Amino acid sequence: MTGTHAEPILTVEDLRVAFADRDRRTVAVDGISFSVRRGETLSIVGESGSGKSVTALAILRLVELAGGSIETGKVLFAETAGTPPLDLVGADRSTLRGLRGRAVSMVFQEPMSSLNPAHTVGDQIAEVVRRHERVDKAEAMRRAVALLGRVHLPDAERRITSYPHELSGGMQQRVMIAMALALKPALLIADEPTTALDVTIQAGILDLIRELKAETGMSVLFITHDMGVVAELADRVVVMRHGRIVEENDVASLFRAPEHPYTRQLLAAATMAGARRLPAIASAPETFAADGAGAPLLEVRDLVTQYPVKGAGFKRSKTHFRAVDGVSLDIRSGEILAIVGESGSGKSTLGKSILRLVEPASGGIRLAGTDILGLKKPELRRLRRHMQMVFQDPFGSLNPRRTAFSQIAEPLVIHGVAKGADLADRVEGLAQRVGIPVDMLARYPHAFSGGQRQRLCIARALALSPKLIVADEAVSALDASIRAQVLELMLELQREMGLTYLFISHDIGVVRQISDRVGVMYRGRLVELGETEAVCSAPAHAYTKTLLDAVPVADPAAARRIRRVARMAEPAV
């Protein structure tokens, strides 16, 4: 941690940013002030809509490209110690181009949308170098290889010729960090760079940022909604809500004695991960037979789902990649069985295979005694009312041209369950059950928050009173407090309706909150299965231990221990 009297490299004074849309003006950042000291990591934390990402974009005036305008304030940047700072708000475009990427670099949340799909990653890194330095293409490519090695990208010399789509999410983010560090910036702005990544890949990225910061002495402005990440990485913390700063302190003091109610709310949501069940539902009676008596609701036996591997040239390859490789499991009625694992482990393919959204190659699946794999399409369509799915991206799951009412009503209409006044009553009842006000049902998906959209998806999944709900990363895209609310809702519905869940997640911290039993998948296989607390307290498999060790801890004292999460082998893509 840097000293408290270190000179600031960045000073933001009374920054106000607004967006204008026709006759409407929205203030996204409302008069905030803060500074980043040399050599420190300052985290800006807050939920979606708090203004933290707009603040990051405003520093480099990128917010103007997104339709925003800086109405008041200064952004003072001093590249080297002892020099007068430059006000970036008043700087001309030529000056800004000279600073971006060289003195100040930025890493965004979605690497795939930040990388050019038409160019190799080597060409993209080399372009950054050649734009600011007079070097030939060969030297720029040599530097690119060295940078990819520095960010621990496996087989950097081969990967330099890869296109972004050929790399995993973790690899893509390492490429973005390599680009950001290509010119040894004095300040790195990282806007939610680990939010979309698995916990072990996230841990590796956090380790990497700490390592590179120690090597180069750069300052870091790290933006996140995850208080566990803040505890691991930050020296100081700024908490934002509704465009304003509500609290600022050093990380130890803020976690030990938060002053603002909103900060306490964020910390409470983050520390719930250590609980067996969310507090509001902790005493809920179990509805399944704990001793395993009675036939399981769902039985999966030796399930194999595979995809063809692309052959070279025009030849058709007969080889296949086994995304699910001989998985067997049971789920009892009223139980929550979680499947946890990283991207590429096969957990989502398992969920889709159970519902026959993808066709398994072999094995057996029975729901309440019915052989799912033996059903013809009309029979499968009728059975689908008893098994529903909730996906990770609620906005992508909803039709942007249809109202919330029509989307909840759709399953009821398709299956001929209700119409007219009865349909309206059912839809309104479902909306109220998941916490959506009835007067919002005439709105379209864009008018809802992320948490509300996920509630709409849950209401739609509940419309036909299913026996089984497969929740595939259903809370992964949500902020911590919204995630806690949705998890509470799912547990309430389980208790009230006797629902059975197959809960798929890459976050074993979330799994620990909600599940009765947990299965751990690695490279298509189920490597561990047992009662949640038993697995989390005494993992039998090394991979399970790696997942547990990678979960960020919302406690600076615990998080600051010297820890290196074992880097699992990146998938061969």
UniProtKB/TrEMBL annotation:
Pfam families: ABC_tran (PF00005), oligo_HPY (PF08352). This is Peptide/nickel transport system ATP-binding protein/glutathione transport system ATP-binding protein. PANTHER family: D,D-DIPEPTIDE TRANSPORT ATP-BINDING PROTEIN DDPF-RELATED, TRANSPORT ATP-BINDING PROTEIN. SMART domains: AAA (SM00382). It comes from the Bacteria. It is a peripheral membrane protein. It is found in: Cell inner membrane. Keywords: ATP-binding, Nucleotide-binding, Transport. Its main location: membrane. Residues 10-267, 298-548 form the ABC transporter domain. InterPro entries: AAA+_ATPase (IPR003593), ABC_transp_ATP-bind (IPR050319), ABC_transporter-like_ATP-bd (IPR003439), ABC_transporter-like_CS (IPR017871), Oligopep_ABC_C (IPR013563), P-loop_NTPase (IPR027417). Belongs to the ABC transporter superfamily. GO terms for molecular function: ATP binding.
